[in-house]
């Protein structure tokens, strides 16, 4: 990143044609202004140019913002002077800016985000003197005449030699570039320098327009008992500037951030960084930060302007996993007769694994999308489903629901119903019996998690398979169904409302 002073001087001029038919020349103006920007001489009372690049840039990325830290050296002047820092993020939160310099006191700061365009340049010189340049059609000799720019709204109005002119063949030249007008956002800082000479300066600020999320790629083994997982961080940079060779850190957790304005659509480029080789790779360090987790990437990362970049976080192989099937019963079926028509319940296919060291993981996993693939008989990867995970601490069990099972059917039917006590719906005791039938037409056995929700105070009075109370209002049964076979679960529940 650059840390240049915006300069102007009398040695260079930039010109705009006054005739509206010379619009192509306006494009050339921008190029000439850039040459002018870097070749002009410093004004008195402003710091001279820096090295042209930031010595160091580091960033901490949050869910929808970033903390940027830049450092460099500047040429100070003793007394009051102005420093112009650029580029800084176009979506900087100015109130968050912290500027540190041992040899100067910060007096005030101004964030200026006026892009350098021919129209902006013209408006900046309204009421000021410019230079009118005309060319003799026969000799080709240029003639310069001082003029005053009166208006640039819908056309150019000049005062030349005491006359008001609106149609002038030729072009307008400007003696300098106004403060704060440039091709990048600028932070203008007024300081009181304590010496003449170079001094180190550091600038820290929060910015919107930068966000990150985690995406996971999982590849299931042929026997569906192991899988490989890659974790990728996707960084979206809509801050208005690029970041070169920055040190990147990521905060995973729900931080109370600055409120964000509505997003602005941009055209993005996509880049993917090299992969991290293992879950314990030295390329990434993880530490606790307050009630969050901080990931530090131990290699410089460059992020282009208006781009989306993926950075490898970790990779783990041969993770033990288990395929199961998951089905949920009906919650409000214990206070009335449901009839004897079987109810077909949707069957979800899930992949379960443990986030622990025994499974070759064992580190906090930021929330994100997990996309799962499996190779077909021709060794081609096929997409088999996706699911979102929350922030998963070390030791957590992770369940990925990938889609509905095709060859396993579950039906539920009420086989008995009795009202045992009470005279109203909310002062009664009911007893219901149910039969759960699971048919497996696959050529391999299947394990089913059947989850039954309850309302009120409930008790299982009889059952053909043992249940586990998984919550105040839920019971779960594991039903192991043989290949090309079926299993029936029967239970009776007593519910008090």
Question: How would you explain this protein's 3D organization?
Answer:
With 497 residues, this protein is mostly beta strands. Among the domains are: 14-57 and 71-206, no CATH class; 323-347 and 405-496, Immunoglobulin-like (Sandwich), CATH 2.60.40. It contains two helices and 35 strands. It has helices spanning 24-39, 118-124; strands at residues 14-17, 56-61, 66-76, 79-85, 98-100, 104-112, 114-115, 129-135, 142-151, 157-160, 163-165, 171-174, 181-182, 186-193, 197-207, 210-220, 226-237, 243-252, 269-272, 284-289, 292-303, 307-320, 322-328, 343-345, 348-354, 368-375, 381-389, 397-404, 408-422, 428-440, 446-453, 457-463, 468-471, 474-481, 485-496. It has a seven-stranded mixed beta sheet with strand order 5-15-3-2-18-21-20, with no helix packed on it. The chain has a six-stranded antiparallel beta sheet with strand order 1-12-8-9-10-11. A six-stranded mixed beta sheet has the order 19-22-17-16-26-27, with no helix packed on it. β29 and β30 (428-440) form a beta hairpin. The radius of gyration is 35 Å and the shape is elongated.
